[in-house]
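Here is a typical protein record:
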Amino acid sequence: MMMISPRHFAAVGLAMLLAACSGVPLLSPYRIDVQQGNLVSQEMVATLKPGMSRDQVKFVLGTPLLTDLFHADRWDYVYRLQRGGGGVEERRLAVFFEKDLLKRVDGDVVAQGMSAAAVPSAPKDAGQPAGEEKGFLDKLRDWLRF
């Protein structure tokens, strides 16, 4: 029968100590991908047409993530994917209605081949029509850089 000497324990312990202090991660924790919000693709935005009803827009894009009581004619769709490796992907889309019909779409997700005349978009820094003051949720989103 083979006997393990204290020297063997010392050698294994020293090797483990050196491996832990080497800065090379032998074992690293698994980090999951965290997905939040509504994923809105270019194909989904391409199906939107001016004059669509709220129900039709909801059928295409899903339930909006943010709705503002003070700006009931605006729906916000926000998507964020934080990868376990550290990369972050963010998408924002704002849908504006006038008299319960789709008027315009604004945001990061733009349909390929969609002309600006078909669904005009506002400038990036103007989240609401000209002359209106920003609402509470708009101010909160700007403060959080969301």
